[in-house]
Amino acid sequence: MKSREEMAQRINQLERELAMTKGGAFRPVRKRSQATFGDWPLYDIAIGPDLQRGEVRGHARGIIALGDMATGFLAIGGLARGVIALGGLAAGLFSFGGLSVGILAAFGGLAVGGLAVGGAAVGGVAVGGGAAGYYACGGAAVGQYVMWAGKQDPEAVAFFEKYGLDVLVQGPKR
């Protein structure tokens, strides 16, 4: 008779194998470029669980990274971190996502960054339904210089017109 530990290990192994085949066939994707730049592959793709490797979600790391979690120059994934990041939760110099944090620019449902554009935007320059920033433009805006239906600071109007961002709130000029 097998020991309790051996039985528990065997059960865990069988559960992993069953999870891999259940429902017909979602298989994890793991592809990595042979070409590298330093230690980083040109591209890395890691999508889905790989229970044989003990990974519940794929983490791609490469110049171009695509995965459940992605880290790279261009990162695309549920959680994306990179110079250019696109994902549900995105962080980088330039980020695009549901929750977007960008050092230079962020675009998303909730955007936080130097330039933030989103449903809710917080940043040095913020444009959105709700905007908070040094220069803020939106449906409701708070900041040093604001532009919204309730208040039009001349400094804010000049700033947003200079960069063409006033069209996001006022619509095209006729």
Overview of this structure, please?
- The chain has 174 residues and is an alpha+beta fold.
- It has one domain.
- It is 18% helix and 60% strand.
- It has three helices and six strands.
- Strands 1-4-5-6 form a four-stranded mixed beta sheet. Strands 2-3 form a two-stranded antiparallel sheet.
- Strand 2 and strand 3 form a beta hairpin.
- The radius of gyration is 23 Å and the shape is elongated.
- The model has no long low-confidence stretch (mean pLDDT 88).
Task: Provide a quick synopsis of the model.
This protein has 174 residues and is of the alpha+beta class. The protein has one domain (21-170).
Given as residue ranges, the uncertain stretches (5+ residues, pLDDT < 50) are none
What is the chain-wise order of helices and strands? HEEEEEEHH
Largest sheet: 4 strands, mixed
Q: What is the number of E strands?
A: 6
Span between N and C termini?
85 Å
Helical content (DSSP H or I, runs of 4+): 10-25%
Structural class determined from secondary elements: alpha+beta
Overall body shape? elongated
Domains counted in the coordinates: how many? 1
What's the Cα radius of gyration?
Answer: 23 Å
Which sequence of strands runs across the widest sheet? 1-4-5-6
Nearest-integer average pLDDT? 88
Helical segment count: 3
The percent range for strand residues is over 45%
